[in-house]
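Hey, quick one: can you model this chain's 3D structure?
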Amino acid sequence: MLTTNPMNTFNSAIESLLVACAELNCTDPDYLFELGRLLTAYTQTDLSVQGKSYSAALNEQGIPIELAMTSSQAGIKYRLVTDPMVDESSIDKRLEKAKQQLHQALLLTKTAGLDQLFDEMFTTMVQNDNIPLAQFTSGPVCLAANIAGPGVAAYIDARSGGRHSLQQTRLWLESCLAEPAAALGLLEQMQPFGTLEAVSLEGTNADRVLAKIYWRPSTQFCLADLPEPLFDDPLFHQFLHLSMTDKVLSGCGIMFSVGFRLDNGKLFDARINLCGHCLAYSASRWPAIVNQCTDLIGAEVLPLEHFMAKGHFDVSFLTMGLTVNHESRINCYVRPTFSA
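Sure thing. Here's the predicted structure for all 340 residues.
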């Protein structure tokens, strides 16, 4: 039975999510805990430093771990998403630790052939003279990994670098995509609509890798106005209607992303991400909202009620993704609360 040490809030929160996930019987519990501790750089020591944490903006509350549950026509998959070494104030140390943990995660999950691609992304996006690490006010990297089978991702915060982040993102896309023209064009076309937030690289093996760019809107617009027509698909409109109900979200409550295949540079998918903190549904209402979204795409119901019934979990993000082949998925990101 998990017990809570009030002086060790982050540790108990991390443990509570791993315990609740293990109860789903979706993977080996020992493997799950090993992966969780690896990705968070988790130790058995107090993770608060003079009352502070140094977490990146993984979520509104600064909790360093989330469970991403994805439902599609292919079934349900789970990923752990983390902010490594949350107790460290040194950005240099956090970056180096994130790189170490990433390479260990590639080994643990048997995700082969991606080491050099990740190293090149780190070098271009954060380890260069244009974007000094001192500009970051929180950890620059978040990590993710499938809890069953291969699949690893790294997300790099692009907010702190300003215009230099745009420049480095262009360089990164040019270096990693076989044909970067489509991605570079969309990166430029999206600038009037918002600000670059992050980039990511994710894959299950060397032949299945995506480069993604994320941005938040800085002005009001319709989905039909966006330069990528996939965002104007009727499914996205229906998803927003079901998930937002009567809510009105500001620019900070919504984020758009697009993914491009490394092997040919072509657009693979588009995604709309909604902030769960901004939607602010009650624990009893969240499962019904998410169920409506999975029903929309004809996918299996996510086990959100399993978490919400415990009283110390909340939804960080609700998202919908759509590929160019019209394959859809619903993602729900669950985090423990500080009172875990």
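One thing worth noting: DSSP finds ten helices and ten strands in the chain.
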